[in-house]
Amino acid sequence: MELKTVGVVGAGLMGNGIAQTIAQAGYQTVMSEINEQLLNKGLGMIKANLANAVAKGKMQQVDMDAVLNRIKGTTNVKDFQSCDLIVEAAVENMDLKKKIFAELDQICPPHTIIGTNSSSLSIIDIAVATKRPDKILGLHFFNPVPVMKLLEIVKTIVTSEDTLNTSKEFGARLGKTVITAKDAPAYIVNRLLIPYLMEAIRLYESGYASREDIDAGMRLGCNHPMGPLELLDFVGLDTAMYATAAMYAELKDPKMNPPILLKKMVTAGQLGRKTGKGFYDYSK
Ligand code: CAA
Predict the structure, then answer these.
(1) Segment 92-112 mean pLDDT
(2) What global pTM score does this model have?
(3) Of 92, 120, 122, 140, which one is the catalytic site residue?
(4) What whole-number distance in Å separates Cα of residue 88 and Cα of residue 118?
(5) Which of 13, 63, 83, 156 is deepest in the core (most CB within 10 A)?
(6) No. of H helices and E strands in the chain?
(7) For atom 6 of ligand 1, which residue has the closest CA?
(8) Would the pLDDT of 12 be above 90?
(9) Helix (H/G/I), strand (E/B), else coil: 2
(10) Of the residues 49, 119, 120, 167, which is catalytic?
């Protein structure tokens, strides 16, 4: 199936990066938010990113304008009617995702593939909220989406081969390397990454090492671009907590139970870079 128009539900950190990447690959793009304020914030982030590329001489102004012209921002879910494929990038909450998928299922034509950018939830649970479970799968992108080279595709036991193949071609056209995972808790990347991040929080909360030393240890000792606490601030502590809680719910592994410090920081609104404070202070 040839994809012409692609939708993105959510214009937050992940949603706007996904929409930018899709529009840069030449697709007509529809990006939605729940209100004008959040939509404009997401569109503003895309503009700022593209303007940065133009300022660095990596993109022509005319190409930036063309990318922006391909993105239609909306707060009306009916605008997804024209989409051949949709990536849902809303908050990591099963009930919300089921509601969004059921609604999209009503609105979209039968051929539309709907993927979720969930980082850890069971995809089959989302798929059965629709009457097209064979056209539902995980399309897991990584932050910052325009830069990170990976697309992790998650196939459920009922995702069709056609859906999988069309999604793989879509990922390749976005310039991503595609890996395929089964619908097991947290798939491949987060199954490995989240336990590591949680262990870093426990090391820090137990007082065994300073946050700076934990981060320097992994940056300099293992050549990671960011240490684990920096990465948690970058990803968002709420997102990390939802991911580990989802893994704990399925695996019952005590190491996946969110550390107390993480829960308290999320309750306090210390979500990392996006709120100006997490393990580090970004307010200055
Ligand atoms: N959007 C677009 N481009 C961006 C960007 C953004 N948000 N942030 C950085 N970039 C670009 C910069 O413009 C720059 O481009 P050029 O090389 O063309 O100039 C390039 O990325 C490098 O950026 P910087 O020089 O500013 O900074 P850096 O070299 O320190 O790299 C980084 C920044 C790419 C974020 C790097 O620190 C990194 O790779 N960090 C780890 C990121 C990571 O692990 N992400 C996965 C998180 S897990 C996840 O997302 C999944 C989940 O389910 C939780």
Answers:
(1) 97
(2) 0.95
(3) 140
(4) 8
(5) 83
(6) 11, 8
(7) 144
(8) yes
(9) coil
(10) 119
**116 contacts: CB under 8 Å, gap ≥ 6:** 87, 88, 97, 101, 123, 126, 136, 137, 138, 139
Residue to substitute in 14, 21, 46, 147 for testing ligand 1 pocket (most ligand atoms within 8 angstroms of CB): 147
190 is an active site residue:
yes
Query: Which residues form the pocket of ligand 1, taking CB atoms under 6 Å from any ligand atom?
Result: 49, 52, 56, 58, 119, 142-144, 146-148, 190, 225-226, 231, 235, 239
Residue nearest to atom 39 of ligand 1 (CA): 225
Annotation marks residue 119 as catalytic: yes
Q: Is 224 a catalytic residue?
A: no
* Mean of all residue pLDDT scores within the chain: 97
For residue range 173-201, list pLDDT tens digits in order: 999 999 999 999 999 999 999 999 999 99
C-alpha Rg value of the chain to the nearest Å: 19
Q: What is the DSSP letter of 53?
A: H
C-beta separation of 259 from 265 below 8 A = no
Bridge partner residues of 7 (DSSP): 30, 86
State the pLDDT confidence band at 284, using cuts at 50, 70 and 90.
confident
